[in-house]
Write a structure and sequence with these properties.
With about 280 residues, the chain is of the alpha/beta class. The protein has two domains: about 5-50 and about 170-235, FAD/NAD(P)-binding domain (3-Layer(bba) Sandwich); about 55-165 and about 250-280, 2-Layer Sandwich (D-Amino Acid Oxidase, Chain A, domain 2). Helix content is about 25%, strand content about 35%. The protein has helices at about 20-35, 70-85, 110-120, 125-130, 140-145, 170-180, 230-235, and strands spanning about 10-20, 40, 55-60, 90-100, 135-140, 155-165, 185-190, 190-200, 200-210, 215-225, 250-255, 260-265, 270-275, 280. The strands form two sheets. Strands 3, 4, 5, 6, 11, 12, 13 and 14 form an eight-stranded mixed β-sheet that branches. The chain has a six-stranded mixed β-sheet with strand order 7-2-1-10-9-8. Strand 9 and strand 10 (about 215-225) form a beta hairpin. The chain starts with 11 loop residues before the first strand and ends with a strand. The mean pLDDT is about 90. It binds flavin-adenine dinucleotide (FAD). Flavin-adenine dinucleotide (FAD) binds near residues 20 and 49. Its cofactor is FAD. Keywords: FAD, Flavoprotein, Oxidoreductase. One of its GO terms (molecular function) is glycerol-3-phosphate dehydrogenase (quinone) activity.
Length: about 280
């Protein structure tokens, strides 16, 4: 992929996308495939922010069942299936284990009901997912300990496994940018959007600065999409209601093999994952 800032100045595009994370990359790729003329600018490197620092999961959102968000879970599961089919080299099935301890907030029956619903919402399991066994399974204490030997055994009653999916988030973004470029989009990283150009109260373009050569230019666009992630709230006045939150990952020596764990922190009941990640474990 070669950046070419000189393709931007004074051109008029159907769509200008600001921000080269997963949202910007998908938007540019999708629009370019639909035949629109597209430009996407990213102030740093592609996926240089949150989109390379996620937990790498393409999941249906099991936890949203607790808040009865069935529509959201169903939609996320459908998207998961679509990605498994469209990009099997980038999105692969991953099985999760969920232990049940004597003092677990969610007991065996409630978890069983949730996992049955999760499987049900997946509807047609699809060949790819069924290879990994989408349907949940229950294990007694001994069998679950044997499957996940790193888990504490004190108070362990047993556990379940269920199917979800994993990706390499940064590479997924890079692949979308490469795809957008192949479909004709102008994709320039190290290029910062510094201001919007308005005419008659409508946004009709933007000023951008080449972060490498320190040149500025104007671009014109029929539509502008701002997929700037956390910068959206930080840079917009009147968005005090929008609070930034932070997540932390630890990369540890590999204790997980080919299955992940969904665990609950004893201190505050928050859910976290232990995920196999290129021979290491991502916590
Ligand atoms: C800890 C954590 C774990 C997560 N785990 C998962 C998960 O497992 N699965 C999942 O689906 N989701 C997960 N998410 C959510 C997911 O990672 C985010 O929703 C997603 O990455 C956001 O993408 P984005 O494109 O909106 O933002 P970003 O990836 O932040 O991209 C925005 C880009 O805009 C650029 N930008 C900003 N201002 C400008 C400007 N003026 N000019 C040019 N470029 C600009 C930035 O440099 C940045 O690269 C997780 C989130 C967190 C925080």
């Amino acid at each position: 992929m070669k950046r070419n800032f000189s393709l931007l100045p004074d051109r008029k595009f159907d769509l200008l996308v600001c921000g080269g994370g997963i949202y910007g990359a998908w938007t540019a790729y999708d629009a370019a495939l639909r035949g629109l003329s597209v430009a996407i600018v990213e102030q740093g490197d592609w996926a240089g922010a949150t989109s390379s620092a996620s937990s790498k999961l393409i999941h249906g959102g099991l936890r949203y069942l607790e808040t009865y968000d069935f529509k959201l879970v169903r939609k996320a599961i459908q998207e998961r299936q679509r990605l498994l089919e469209l990009a099997p080299h980038r999105v692969w099935p991953l099985r999760f284990g969920v232990p049940v301890y004597r003092d677990s907030r969610i007991g065996t029956l409630q978890l069983k009901a949730g996992l049955m619903l999760y499987d049900f919402l997946a509807g047609r399991p699809g060949e790819i997912m069924s290879d990994a066994g989408i349907a949940h399974r229950h294990f007694d204490r001994a069998a679950f300990s044997e499957r996940f030997p790193a888990l504490a055994r004190d108070g362990l009653k047993g556990g379940f496994t269920y199917g979800d999916a994993q990706t390499d988030d940064a590479r997924l973004v890079l692949e979308l940018i490469a795809g957008a470029m192949s479909a004709g989009a102008v994709c320039v990283n190290y290029c910062r959007l510094t201001g919007l150009v308005e005419a008659g109260g409508l946004v009709c373009g933007a000023t951008v600065r080449d972060q490498i050569d320190d040149k500025s230019a104007q671009i014109f666009s029929r539509q502008t999409v701002y997929t700037a992630g956390q910068w959206t709230s930080a840079s917009q006045p009147g968005r005090e209601w929008c609070r930034l939150s932070k997540g932390v990952h630890l990369v540890m020596p590999g204790t997980m093999t080919d299955e992940a764990l969904l665990l609950t922190a004893k201190s505050d009941g928050r859910v976290f994952f232990m995920i196999p990640w290129y021979g290491m474990t991502l916590l």
